[in-house]
Amino acid sequence: MLACELALAQVRVVVLERLTEVDTTIKAGAINTPSAEALYRRGLLPPLAEVQRAALETFGAFARQRQSAGASVPRPVPRFAGHFAGIMLRGDLLDEADPDFAGSGPAGEVGLIPQEALERILGARAAELGVTVRRGVTLTGFDAGDAGVRVHTSDGTLEAGWLVGCDGGRSTVRRLAGFPFPGTAPSITGHQALVEMTGADALGAGWNWTATGTYVHGPLPGRILTVEFDGPPADREAPVTAEELQTSLRRVTGVPDVTVTKVTSATRFTDNARQVPEYRRGRVLLAGDAAHVHAPFGGQGLNLGLGDAMNLGWKLAATVHGWAPEGLLDTYTAERHPIGAWVLAWTRAQVALMRPESHAAALREVVAELSGTTDATTYFVKKISGVWQRYDLPGSHPLTGRSAPDLELSDGSRLADHLHTGRGLLLDLADDPALRARAAGRGDRVRVVTAGCPERPGLTGLLVRPDGFVAWAADAGDGPGKELDAALERWFGAPAAVAAQAVPAP
Question: I need a labelling partner for 479 at 20 to 30 A (CA). Which of 81, 139, 451, 500 fits?
């Protein structure tokens, strides 16, 4: 994702990928609203919609398989809206009038995207943009200085201006760069797998709590998940065997005859929760799990990484091209660290609620009862979906700092259509020459579009950053004054003519 953002901004980038092929291990199964919006704004909605259609067909196959075997099927939940620690949320209780749910446009219809499929879509996108991906190559070390980074790999040495560690929870870049990684130690052992098994008819469908842990069966045929609360695994690196999965499944479910006959895909996980204090050390940066790790409950990790990449990409590109205003790259940590910290807390809360002991069980009953109300359902869904996320940006308008609403414009286009190039967008909704003139000298960084917006007649202008977040907005009577000038300067630097005068003579 980050490589695509950099390439879109005409920055030369090389991806070092130790794997020779896309990893087919079962991982995340969905994306949230900010992720869907980010991909939509880069023109990737059609392939996502096709992946979701196939995923829904697979979910239906699981229910039909259970029914034909005479086993229980997941109890129908009216418009499934997610879960918190396995407590299902009902979409029919959701307050859809809440303003945080408005404005995502077609992106709001996409969510069931398995990680493997998303990796393939992004891989194709990277190839289309001319990104160099060197598979089967590992980073072995680097020397970072004030002017650049010399990167040592299993296939030679590279000279680069910047190095970004997107290399996961056990990041080599993070370790070699000396980033501190404070947090809490693991206390659980989890398994997730796609298997073939016998005796599965006795397993409950969906989420289940027992005296020895938590388990999930479905919604894919053969998909199982177990969580045991007696400490972390002895060896995270060892291959996950059928015997190990079977032992865990029998222990947690209490079903003695369930037998795993084949493992298609399997992984272990823990609730190790850590986060670096700063996402940058000189010319070395971190993104995704390299910067923060946590339990997978609620599916936040994939989305957190995509959000990091979307936030960092255009800022790093601006720095490479030399027009970044002072401090722009430092806003990456300032904006993304609080959201990462929230995810760690959100997953810790779910682990606490899932524990197989009487106090957690009592609390789980309280939360389950609360989740049956409109207020609680709306609260949980807003958090899970990510629509609550905003950045603390200067400006007085309520849209400032929020993800831009996908406005339908009078020329038939939508706001997202104008973000495909990865530039910022100044949207003139009142045909105001004075507003458009403010962006003069920044045509390589900000696209100016003039159009009406019948659905928001009071809104006269929007300045949208390349990552889709609103940097400035105005209503009728506000006028394009000093706030717009300050936002343009803060996020897009000085106009080209002024910047050229500031360059010293050779």
Answer: 500
Distance of alpha carbon 79 from alpha carbon 496, whole angstroms: 51
Tokens of 477: 């009577």
Torsion of CA 87, 88, 91, 95, to 10 degrees: 0
* Residue type present at position 351: V
50-103 residue pLDDT tens: 999 988 887 676 666 656 666 665 554 445 678 999 999 999 999 999 999 989
User: Boundaries of CATH 3.40.30.120 in the chain?
Assistant: 415-502
Look up the pTM and report it.
0.93
The low-confidence residues of the chain, meaning pLDDT below 70, are 59, 61-80, 479-480, 497-506
The Cα 52–Cα 71 span in angstroms is: 26
- DSSP assignment of 136-183: T--EEEEEE-SS-EEEEETTEEEEES-EEE---TT-HHHHHHT----E
Please give the CATH architecture assigned to the domain spanning 189-270.
2-Layer Sandwich (3.30)
Contacts for 32 with CB less than 8 Å, ≥ 6 apart? 111, 299, 300, 303, 384, 385, 386
CB–CB of 495/421 below 8 Å? no
Do residues 498 and 434 make contact, with C-beta atoms less than 8 angstroms apart?
no
Question: Nearest Cα to 460, choosing from 422, 441, 434?
Answer: 434
